[in-house]
Amino acid sequence: MNSDPLDELLRSYSKQPLPSPAERLTPDVWKTIQLRRKQTFWSRMLPILDWREVFGEPRIVVAALAVALLVGTLPAMLAGRVANPRLARESLHFEVFSALRPSLIDRLAATPAAAPTSLRP
Length: 121
Hints:
With 121 residues, the protein is mostly helical. It is built from 7 helices and no strands.
């Protein structure tokens, strides 16, 4: 039966002695354990919330700013295409300051379906 060269190589590696651990392995391990114990629950569960790490990467900052700019300007650009000045006036509620604003009774008379049931005849 033909033996695989990889098997022979693995057999030769298995006969070699293990390397000795680094001198500072134990203190470094304990230092890492102490650092992890000091972390808050949320920083362990959601490491993305560690803002120092997020803002340490310029690529992530640029990507986040680009997404924020797109999310902020896209609806404004789309809303600008629908030019309806009456809708804009009504959404800002400037009629409160108008001397010609309709009174409550005028509005109720104009739309009886919107009137409360106690005011209907």
